[in-house]
Amino acid sequence: MATLFSQWRESLQRLGFAMPPQSAATPAPGPGTISPSVQVVASTWARDSHDLFDFEAHHLQTQTFSVSEPAICVRNGTEVRVLGERETLTPGNGEPLLRLVQRDGAFWVDKASSSSNSKKLWLVVRDFSGCGHRVAEGDVMKLGRFKFRVRQLAANACDGTQPELKLDDSGVVCCTNNAGDDLTTTMCRICLLEGPGEDDPLITPCQCKGTIEYVHLGCLRHWIRGRLNLSDASGGSYFYRPLACELCKAVYPTYIHTGTDRLREPLVEVPLTQPPFIVLENMVRDSQQHAARGLHVISLTDKVLKLGRGHESDVRIADVSISRCHATIRFQRGHFILEDNNSKFGTLVAMKKPRIVEPSKSISIQMGRTVLSISAQPGVGSCTIAPLQQLPGVPTSAQDERALRLSLLTRGSSRGDAGAGQAGGGTAD
Asked: Domains plus CATH for the chain?
């Protein structure tokens, strides 16, 4: 079949048709075969600071690679290299960044190692094609060096959903039903009054014992509300964090069970939050602003959620790695959309599973101070004998193709007659 293809090319070339070049060293691909490849553009920031990448830096080391087989990207200093999948990784090769895996005729981006302690791959939100990243519960977002986990999303108020405030299930249960105990002479450690009130029972919310064991539920709620600085903000937005007893240091439970039927209700009287709302868990412990983990409950009824360092931000983070208006989250057509606001150190989302490199879309992955932009290149695919309409300059309609074939036959016969006349002209009749 390859011989017929070569003879066909030579015949057209003798008739004066320009043919596309074909490398002699590379065999012609088989019928329907495709050789996918991807282009990798690596940009590395010169500074190594808190795994950050400066998207506003003008002096970046940029390298471009074309990958046509499974490979591993590694970094040594500011130099990025692409190693074959079979090459052995050694400390001298550098730090592994990610793997490019071939599956089902396409390339996939995966972690450099299958172990659980392998570093996360972070998707760069500003390079998403379309309009931002569609947020899902469980997503981990990184703004500068701060991380947030999406704990809860509520799109509508049909089922009366309210924020779930529990961060860690410690198993501690606090009940208000003390019918079996005679607490008429028991003193509340806050108001110092004896006995439970009509709708204000005495509870034991921590590990304190003795005369400071009991406290009125209303008194404790009033004290916690003042510590959390909760207010009836528009839509019911607030920041919640678990508080600990100042004496025994035990963390107060998030929920209590009231009445004989053990109805669960929050220990803290938080305002009702209007859907759509989002609950973000603060995952960074900072001694100045966030002494412990907490939850940002934000209603998006009439606004766009702003995250940044500025005072107008709904979630304010006082850190030099955060821009004044770093990122936004808006509710549109039933989905929560995260967008980067051209921040200096970027908005990232942790990649949960291997991601395919689609032909029409490019993806950018950040690993520390390196950003890898990966895009699919057109595959090389052809038939054994290409049809005439695939050749450049050849008409594609049926009439033009029929005229072309006739002209080929006419040109071939005329050249044959001319050759015969020239051959006979050398002899006398």
From this structure: 35-121+351-380 (2.60.200), 133-157+273-348 (2.60.200), 174-233+243-266 (3.30.40.10)
